[in-house]
Amino acid sequence: MSTKLFTGRVGPKLGSDFFASRRRKFFRRLKKNSVAVIVSNPELTRSNDTEFPFRQSSDVLYLTGYPEHGSAVVLSNIGGVEKFSLFVLPKNQAMETWTGIRFGEKGAIKQFGADAAHPDSEFAKVLAGLISEAECVYYKFGVNAHYDEKFRKLWLESGQAALLNPGDILENLRHFKSKDEVALIAYACEVSAMAHVEAMSLCRPGMFEYQLQTVVESVFGFNGARAVAYNSIVAGGNNATVLHYTSNADRLRDGDLVLIDAGGEYHGYASDITRTFPVNGRFSEAQKEIYELVLSAQLAAIKAVKPGRTLNEIHGIAADRLRRGLVELGIISAEMRTRTGARKAIKKAVAAGTAADLPKLRDFFMHGTSHWMGLDVHDVPSDRSTRDDAVRPGNIFTVEPGLYFRADDRRIPERYRGIGIRIEDDILVTRDGYEVLTASVPKSVDEIESIMAQGKARWSA
User: Fold this and answer.
1) Lower Cβ count inside 10 Å, N or C end of the chain?
2) pTM score, whole prediction
């Protein structure tokens, strides 16, 4: 295996002191005489008696790093005493023989710093006492139905103390990444970057999309990113015009492009990269025209990143560049060169009943340019209103403009039909501007074609 596939080092990890500092920040935001309950994701059945690989809820990971299902975190400050309790699956030799060693109550205290630990079966009994003394209770429904049922009964029986959402605290904390978190995300990006380069190097006409998917995901796992941050997209030809195409089942054809949107997850932290390149290693003139337009929009949007900007402003910069380029290529009319002109043209077409026949930017670029990224690939805060909030140092988000021309869209020139292109990088906001965490994945036409030529020579030798 090529040395390109291995980082040569062990990725960074978070220690128990780090999680303790996070809990202290949470406690500072907790109302007096409160109890907050944050529950794990459930284990999900894959088929019959087998389960999907378990992935802990991001909020439990953020506060504790505790990896097992069936768990719940309780943070209370009743009477001014801050206490961190964990409910966990108890030690069970018979079960552990089949499904692996559990931390149990002792491990929860020793290895994860809990002040107290209880078997999950005691959740209702222990929590009832805390809720009866609390003025406010924090709980988020919809994460784990098993715990929802138990908690709902406890809360109703308690006299219904004020119920708040712990996500309101956690979203604010998780929005700003510490140096340690940035190091984890940067490592996930480094590994994912290598995977995309390897996919470029190995791509050949006649391969199946799932074969490139396997290449990408094997590089993730080989370097410690043992889970994908989301379902990998490997979309050849017209499949790339489907934004969340994940069947990855078709054969890659000579003369088509292939879009790969894939990122590894490292210790819970996501990366998110998209690259689009020619299956045969050479862009056609039409493909190159669209590709360089998308790339110019992405570079302009990235260049604009700095503290004080908003995601909507960054989106506007990318969209304006795409709009002008589509006019220059004759895909949309000249009157749509500006946002004002586009609004007028659309209004006129609506009045005339011809809006469906009018090519416009949002027909070909129908998603936002950016989303927040962290423990979730589409990270908190989830409220779309935050797209108008000024970005600040420690925020991480994507910049990913694209253009998608369906093969059956007769409104556009035939040479562009069936082309779907997206270029995506992960951006850290710094004090002075930004850092591109995924910069090691080439994206110029010349660089991509060179990598693919070298790969062809390497694997043909």
Assistant:
1) C
2) 0.95
